[in-house]
Structure formats: structure tokens, C-alpha cells
Design brief:
heterodimer; A: alpha/beta; FAD/NAD(P)-binding domain; 8 helices; 18 strands; B: about 425 residues; alpha/beta; Rossmann fold; 3 domains; 18 helices; globular
Amino acid sequence: MSNKPILVIGGGPAGLEATRGIADLGYNAILVDKSDVLGGNPISANYAALTPDMRSAEEAMAEMVDAITDNPLVDIRMNTTVVGSEGDAPNLKVTLQNESGEEVVDAGSVIVSTGFQHFDPGKETQMYGYYEHDDVITIVDAEKMLKDDNFVVPSSGKKPEQICFIQCVGSRDRQIGNQWCSKVCCGIASKQAIEIRDILPETRVFIFYIDMRMYGFWEDEIYWKAQEEKNVNYIRGIVTEITKRGDKLLVKGEDTTMGRPMEIPMDMVVLSVGMEPSEGTTQMADTFKLPLESHGFIGTTGGALNTVQTKVPGVFVAGAAAGPADLEDSISMGGAAVMKACAFLRKSELQPA
Amino acid sequence: MSEHKYQKWIQKDNVVIDGIDISGEWNKMYEPREIMEYDITGLENVRDLDGGESMGWCYQCAQCIGVCPVDNVGSYGPRKIYRKLQTGMDLFTHDDLWMCTTCSNCLRVCPKEVDMMKIIPAVREQAVLNGNVPAELQDMLQNVAEYGNPMGDSARKRVKWLKKFDEPVRDLSKEDDPQPVDVLWYVSDYFSFHGRGNDAAKSMVRVFNRLNVDFGILGKEEKCDGDSQRLVGETGLFEELAEHNGAQFDKYDHNKLVVSDPHAFNAFKKFYPAVTGKDYNLQHYTQFLAEQIDDISKLMKRPFPKKVTFHDPCYLGRHNGEYDAPRILLNAIPGIEFSEMYRCKEQGYCCGGGGGGMWLDGLVADHTTERLSENRVKEAVEVGAEVLAVCCPYEVSRFEDAVKSTNNDGKLIVMDIIEIMDYCMGDDAEA
């Protein structure tokens, strides 16, 4: 069996699952992550509870990290980036860089799991004023507040009496250039609404939406639970703009099922920001010459029948680097990428080029 | 709620000015249209009631509106109630509370199982306790409480229809030592007190006697079944009636309880047991007779060569799942030309009389363009029927009024199925 390692780039959920899978199959893995802690966005962006099962993000990611720690087949490189690649798989020579310098490693195959970044609400075309109003936050900020057990109105430090979520911020928007649905924000907003109602039962929570996209089991496990058990109010029609009115935020838009304009005072507004390709994802596409699909994520071949094969032989993609993905998608793709990468190495051994 | 000057807004459901219909959205312009606050207190108050919980489950798919019989003639329905509650309506004092006929068509299609059959009585119960009851309904409730029937007639008049009626009927309340009967027939209010109901009651007696049914009635001891009273929120009155009637059912030894009225059927089957602790061997008369259809067919020799359609009572059909029995009887009518209306069986349209609608015509008329019964009668005419057959005592009077008000006098007659059967069992000489 080949001793050439499979290089996994990015230690989020997809990369961690891929690394574990490679070692489980008896291959060598090198896991590279640019930060000093594994776990990806769930850790670096301070997620509290994961969607949909509400499990602690720290606990779940720790379990994934434990599965690859102290494994002789796994070489973990933290604070490390990939800065170059030469040759073709299975004979790649990849240049890694960390603070002590550059190093060239052999790689038989590559799995790119560099994920997404949260949409920057400063780029939205609506007037939500994320950078103007202290009390306009994102679901990422809300996660941190929930994790710190300190969900308060930022400007006053008080408990909010009335808050709302605005869905589809930075998603489904031709003007911004993000024409995709980010898949997870409906679920995350609903999950956060449940958590908020649990810790602040007097707080009225509204979710303004275009379509609630609660696919699969998220429908009853999150959406119905939020509405039926936690009395979260779902209002169809997203907010057009937010203005400051006294110490409140006035959200303006249309209540479409009533056919009436609305101007509602809120103590706090949470923007459900979507996903964009991360900087690392764009860089790895460049480094490995991976064609992007039309939205700017890493393109795959084979459409729905092959979710992990890039257009470059021996280079695979897993998780949100290939497009908006939830945790379940990312883990599944991690496993699928391992299978394809190992198969690629096996075939190249049996039929050397 | 805040004191904002634009707080109040008005949208009239039915406005016609100089012959121009500006109902609903068209008149919203008279006041600022902005929703300034989502005051969900009203929603919370409904949701907090026993039975009201599912009001909070609506996700606005609007399937209920497609089948709500009231929305056909006005603007009303569970989805709309939910949104109004979310935007400040107090259902406990709002006319919308009295618009629902509890026909159960919305629940049939609701993917979230928002149950207006529980929500509406729960809210009405609070309204009743607070004295917020429409006057016309209050009169009915007082009559039932005082006299045991909604008409306000004395208990003795319940058997007035038997005077000058030659057929043998055992009135068990008049027997010194009442012997067991096979069938205890619960006659019901409309068959007992209403003129056209009396006709059907007499037909029932003649049919029973021709079939040699061993039956008896409770006579002056019978009281209103209470189902409509329960549905308008008079839970206490319902329980009194259930206890009273339940005691009569105990008192007279019988094998089977046969009822004329689907509302009574519903009450005895689903709601009396909780009060009386007893289950009843119960049949609607159509079920009782459908079991004997072979014998009945032999007796029905006189043809009834009419185009007939049938109105499914909500409380026999959707509420209790019986669609076949009435049709078995109708199909056995010699010479009949039967055709269904478009909205039949599970999809049947409501006559408007259920859930207290029988006594709310005035209030409902303020919010609708026509009565539900009128809408239904038009459908019967549209399918070419000459006879609208019914098997709920509320309906003969409701539909006969509607036939007149829609100018269909002479085109359509309304008959209880039992009247048609009685006719077919009769002699030609009687015609």
C-alpha cells in the first residue's frame, strides 16, 4: 500500500471527518489548518449549540478531534497554510508554510475542506445598518452571546423585550451576486429563537422570512418546535430597512400575508447572514488550479452523482468549500471524499501511469 | 400597546358604497395601513386555553381558506384568524368568534392539525363567562336552560305533534311501569317542535311501524342534546343536559339508542361518556335503517321519479365518518334519479347551522354576502336537482328559507330522507 499521504486542507467538520476516514482505512494523512485550533467555524466562530440536534459545538468538535489525535497515521500541522503545488496526483509536491518557514511534502491525493465564511452584512443592499447600529447583530454574534450565556441588548446590557431575525441576508440576492440559498440560516435562526425563548421566556421573538426552508427533519424538529412549543412568531416578508427610533430599532417592510406595510419597534435585530466561499477556499482553488462553479465555490464533476470530485484528477473537495452545506452535508462529503481519494491512490498503484 | 396615533386601523369586511363593493382590502385606505406593532397578547390568550393550544401552530399554508364554507361568502377562516390574532385582535370580543360553524372542513385539510373544533368552543366559553354573547344566541341559551329546548316551548309541547296522529307511539314517560323497548328513539328538538320537523317525525313513526320496530320515546322527559350549546361555549349547560338525558337513557331499558339528529349523535357518542361515565349503543336513523335495506326495499313500492341530490350533514359526515348510510337509503328509492353535488361527502359544504350558527344568522349576515344555506341551495339547483334530500333536523327549515330567498321556490323542494321513504312506502291512494 502506498505510503504517500493524502493531504487534507482545513480542519473543520469535513476535514476532521476526512482525516479520520483516511486513517481508519490505513492510509497516511496530513491535516493542515491555518489556525491554532481545530474544529473550523463551529469553534472559531464560537457556535454554541449545533443545528439541528442542539449538541454543544465544543463537545462535538472535541469528539471529532479526539478521533484523530495521537494516531500514528495522522500528521497534524497547525498554523500552517498551503502556498504551492507542483506536479500531478499521485505525485504532488505541495509546499506548506508556517512561522518557521516553508516545507515541501509529497502527497498522493488532496482533499480541500476549506469551508465558507459568513457573509459580511456591510455588503447587503438593504439598509440594515449592521455597522451603524450596535443592536443590529448577526447570527454569528448571537451564537457567541448564547455561548457566553449573556444574551442582552448590546447598547444597554438589558434583556431584550422584543427581537427579530431577518432571513436571507446576503443570500438569494442578484445585486450582491450571491444567488444561492445558504441552506442553514432558517434552521439556525429558528434554533437560536428556541434558545432565546428558553433563557428569556418573556422576550417576544419574530422571524421575518421570504420562504422558510426547513428541509427534511428540520421541519418539525426545529421549525415546528420553535412555533408550537416556544411560541416564536413567523412573519412572511423580510424587512426592507432598519432605522433608529429613540432607543428602539424600527424595522420596516411588508407583512405579505396581511398585505400591509409594517413598521415595528425592536430592541434588537439579528441578521441571518449566509455563506460565501472562504478566503482559503478561493486560494486553494487557485493553488491547485481547480475550476470554480458559477457561484464561486469549488466546482465538482458529475453533478448530483459526484459531489466531491473536482475537475483536477486526485483532488477532491468536501464540505462548504463546494457550496452551502450544513453539518450533515459536510460530514457526508468528508466520508465520500476519503473513499474517492483512497480509491484514486489504489488505482494509481495498480496501474502506474 | 403603545399610544401611537396610528394605532387604530379599520378594515371592514363588507362595505358597499353607491353600489360599489369596496369590501376587505379595498377599504383599507381610509386609515393608515401600517402595522405598528405585533401585539400578540390575543394569540397568547387563545393559546393558553385548554383546547386553544393549536391556534399557535398555523404556518399560513391557507388550505383551510380553500375549504372554509364561511370564506366562500365572506372573508373568514382559521389562517386569517391566526394572523389577526398576531396583529392585535381580541378574539374573545370579536365577531369572528361567532362566524365558525364547526363544520370541520378546515381540520380535514390542515397539515398542522389546527383544531378549530376545540379552539372555538374554548374561546367562546370564556366569552360566555364574561357575558360577551350575541343577543340572538343568548336568547337561545336562556330557552334551553329554562325549558330544555331552544324554541322556548314548554316541555309538555314536545309531544304535541303526536296529537291527532293515529300511529302507535310508546311515550315511555307516560307509562306507569315502562317495559323494555328494543329501540329508544331520541326525537330531537326540531323534529319535536318545528312544523316541518314534525312532518319528518311522523314519517319516522310510520316507517318504524311498517318495519315493526319495537320503539319508544322519552316524551316530555327528552331535552335538547346540548351539542350546539357546548360548541357555543356553554359547557355548564351542556353538562346539565348530558346528565339529564343520560339519566333518562338509564331509566328506560333499551337495546339501542337511535337518533334523528347528527348533532345529538355526535354529543352522545363523543361527549356524553365523559359526563355520564357511560357509552351508548348508538345509531343515526340512516344507519339503523340502512341495515334493514332489504326489508325496506320490499316495502317501498311507490315510485319517486325525481331528480334528487343529497346534503351531507357535517356532524354525520366529517365529524363521524358516515357517508354511506344515507346514500344506501336514497339509492333504494324507486324511480329516483340521484346526482351528487360538487361538494359532497368529505368535501361537503356546510349549511351554516352548526356550532351555534342556527341562532347566529343576524350576526353572520353582517359579515357575509349570502347565507351558507343559500350558497348550498344554489349548488343543488345547479346540478339539476328537484329535491334536496337531508337527514339533519336543522336543515329542512334552513334550506327551505334559502330556497325562498334565492328565488328558487317551485324549482327545488327540501325533504328529509325519511319523508321520501315514508312516501314510497305509502299507498298511491294517499297521494
